[in-house]
Write a structure and sequence with these properties.
CATH class: Alpha Beta
Organism: Spongiactinospora gelatinilytica
CATH topology: 60s Ribosomal Protein L30, Chain: A
Number of helices: 2
Largest sheet: 3 strands, mixed
Structural class: alpha+beta
InterPro entries: RutC-like_sf, YjgF/YER057c/UK114
Oligomer: single chain
Pfam family, one: Ribonuc_L-PSP
Protein name: RidA family protein
Number of domains: 1
CATH superfamily: RutC-like
């Protein structure tokens, strides 16, 4: 799986989890993404571009807090991206 596909899949996984809890991306107030960098000192333009595209696609013009963290490894050996969100269900915008 290519990096772009992996990022899109991570967003889809989050969307499924949100739906299970009765939430959507509009309920998300904070995102932390963990990235295995392509080089020792830079997460990479592809990570940033695809993440931003997915935020726009799923959240529209609604912004959220986003923290992006480079890590040496994730839970599965070939994993390069993991996304954690905080959502508040039932709030009025």
């Amino acid at each position: 799986m290519g990096l772009e596909d992996e990022i899109v899949q991570a967003f889809e996984n989050v969307e499924r989890t949100l739906a299970t809890a009765g939430a959507t991306w509009r309920d998300v107030i904070a995102v932390t993404s963990y990235h295995v960098p392509g080089s020792a000192d830079f997460i990479g333009e592809v990570h940033n571009r695809v993440m931003a595209e997915q935020f726009r696609r799923r959240m529209g013009d609604r912004g959220t807090i986003w923290i992006e963290i480079g890590v040496p490894a994730l839970g599965a050996p070939k994993m390069r991206v993991e996304i954690r969100v905080t959502a508040i269900i039932g709030r009025d915008d």
